[in-house]
Amino acid sequence: MPGQVEDKYLVEKNENESALIKQIEQKIIDKNKEKQIVEKKLKEISNSPEQTETELKLLKKENGLLKDQVDFYTKTKDAVNLESRQAALKENEIAISKKTAQFNYQHAEKEMTVAELEVKTNELSVEIARLNFEKSKIATVYRDKHEPATPEEKGNFFTNFLKKFKKDDPQDKYGYKKYDEYYKKQHETLAKSAGKLKEAETKFQDAKAKYQESNK
C-alpha cells in the first residue's frame, strides 16, 4: 500500500473536498467495525467443525466395533445378542449420518465466514485506497499552484523521451499515479473475494438444508 499523502498539500481543500474526505473517513470507521464483527463471529465458530469431526471419528470407530460384533454373533448364531448389536449398529449409522451433516454445515459456515471476512477486509482496503486517491487529487491541484515547474520539468522532446525511457512518467510529476493504480487494484481484489463469498454462501445454504433435513 502506498504511503499517506502529506497533509501539508491538503490545506487548501474546498468545502466539497473536505466533505468528501470526511465521508470516506467515516466509511473507513464503519467498514472497520463490520470487519471486527465478522472477526468475532469467526473466532466463536472456529473450533466447532474440529470438535464435531472428533465426535464423528469416535462414532466411526464405534461403528467398526459394532460391525465386528454383528459378524461374531452371526457366526455363533447368538440371536439375542445379534439383535441388540444390529439395533445398536443401526442407531450408530443414523448418528454418523446426522453428525456428518452437522460437520458439513459447520465447516461450510466457517468457510463462508472466512470468505466474508476477506470481503470486509478488502472493502476496508478499497476505502483507504480511495481516501489516498482523493487526497492525491487535492494535493496535485495545490502543488500545481504553488510549485512552479523547473526547467527540467518543462523539458523538451528529448528530455521527456529520456525520462520516459528511464520509466519516469512525465504526466506523473508528483508520483501520485500509484494511488490511482492501487485504488483500481483494490477494486479488482474486492471483486474476486466477492465471487468467492458468493460460492461459499451457496455451499453453506446447501449444507444447512441437508443438516436441517437430517434432524427431522
Number of strands: 0
Q: Report the order of strands and helices.
A: HHHHHH
Radius of gyration: 31 Å
Helix-strand category: mainly alpha
Q: What's this, in brief?
A:
The chain is an all-alpha fold and 216 residues long. The chain has 6 helices and no strands.
Attribute tags:
mainly alpha; 6 helices; single chain
Model description:
The protein has 216 residues and is mainly α. It is 82% helix and 0% strand. α1 runs antiparallel to α3 (79-146), α2 packs antiparallel against α3 (79-146) and α3 (79-146) packs antiparallel against α6 (177-214). The longest helix is centred in the middle third of the chain and has 68 residues, at 79-146. It starts with 14 loop residues before the first helix and ends with a helix.
Please write out the topology:
Blueprint lengths: L14 H31 L2 H28 L3 H68 L4 H4 L2 H9 L11 H38 L2
